[in-house]
Amino acid sequence: MVARSKGCARCVQRRVKCDENVPGCRRCDTYGFPCPGYDRAFKFVAGKPFRSRRRKSSNRNVEGTAAEGDASVQALTWPPSVNCAHLNVVQSLDTLVLELSKPFPETSAHVISRWFRFLPAVYGRNRTLDLTIQSFAAHHLGRMSDNMSAVQHAQSAYGQALYRLRTSLNNSECLSSEVFCAVLLLCLYELFANTHEADAWMKHAQALSQLVQIRGSHCYRNAFDQALLKASRGMMVMHSLFSGQSCFLASSEWHSVMGQQFNTGFSAKVDGLVEQIFAYFTFAPSLIHELYDLKEADHTSPSTTARVSNLLARTLDMQGKLLIWYDQFARVVPVPHEVLSPSGDSLYPVVLWYSDENAATLFCSYYSYMLVLCEILRVCGYPGEHAAMLVYFRDQICKSVEFNARGLLGPYRMAFALRVAYEVPDPTTKLWIEGCLQRLSKVYAAAHPQNFG
């Protein structure tokens, strides 16, 4: 998402010259309209949608008749009638929502899957969002049923959604909840579908971050917008981490916005702890950026010594906060217990089993953050058994894979934790993680081992 014009939004839309007067341009004043300002003129920039080769023949076709008994493929057989097509997409979404919840209860409170349940209700409100929903649903249902025609349709709808989004971002609907939802879905589509460009999702995540900021903190006061914000914040933090940019969500203002609750399904006490650990995570990019900057610094310089001291103080403070958080969380949520590996894994014959995927994801977030902090302390030369703790937290993450990587959203839940675990130097474990990633990438393209190099 980059600047397109310096004029106000109305002048850009009308394609007339704007005098860029502050606080509002004179042309709007002449026509008797309040000037909308200069922060809404932007366009969406993303990589070209990838295309696979068209098959000469197929037993299944999006426009044709699905194989008997294949409900998900039947749901993608869109007839000419507009009303029937609309109904069919909603049915497809219902099927997808059920699949996204598996193997856990459909009533799961997990924020990542919960927001998908809004999609059937919002489908039909906005053309840009409709195309994005069609693309996302067709991709997943096509993969589930091995229907390559559906996957190809998803790629086509994705390209149309990108084209339509450029228009949406330059008119009055640019700050709407529907456009926000479309940008989030496009980012997720890249994570799940794009095997050709490892960083394609970063372009969408950057757009997502910019759109959230441009909309302003006051735009997240209903259940739908809050669900979208909470579903997208992990990607925004990851974009900040990998891009080297500061994380705007680390401010107290945004912590307050994200702390609002709209029937998440968690208890009030667990709600607070969920928000607390995420607030802590918004500081992770700045800690990691400082660590990498210091690796290139002159360590004989007094200024570098002062920076190392400051980083150590911040890291130890965060480590202390996380230890307190874990103690409180373990009192209200069952801690994982050990069971024999259902798959008979040779490296990890004993694995961790959790009460549900919500708990598993939060525990894995804790393991990941603690691993990062231990690495910072090790690199900075702080006394302690940091190497042993790195191995411990790495193994906790790996032992969580069999439980928490299940289902369509499993790879999404485990991707960051595995990315962190992959950095702990151990050739045997790295090969094991690469094997996991190879399997997970069949559903979640961003998990492909080549992206972890």
TrEMBL record:
SUPFAM superfamilies tied to this protein: Zn2/Cys6 DNA-binding domain
Keywords: DNA-binding, Nucleus, Transcription, Transcription regulation
Superkingdom of origin organism: Eukaryota
PANTHER family tied to this protein: TRANSCRIPTION FACTOR DOMAIN-CONTAINING PROTEIN, ZN(2)-C6 FUNGAL-TYPE DOMAIN-CONTAINING PROTEIN-RELATED
Zn(2)-C6 fungal-type domain boundaries: 7-35
Gene3D superfamilies from the UniProt entry: Zn(2)-C6 fungal-type DNA-binding domain (4.10.240.10)
GO biological process: positive regulation of metabolic process
Cross-referenced InterPro entries: Fun_TF (IPR021858), Osmoadaptation_assoc (IPR053178), Zn2-C6_fun-type_DNA-bd_sf (IPR036864), Zn2Cys6_DnaBD (IPR001138)
Organism taxonomic ancestry: Eukaryota, Fungi, Dikarya, Ascomycota, Pezizomycotina
A Pfam family of this chain: Zn_clus
Name the UniProt record assigns to this protein: Zn(2)-C6 fungal-type domain-containing protein
Annotated signal sequence range: none
Organism: Aspergillus carbonarius (strain ITEM 5010)
GO molecular function: DNA binding; DNA-binding transcription factor activity, RNA polymerase II-specific; zinc ion binding
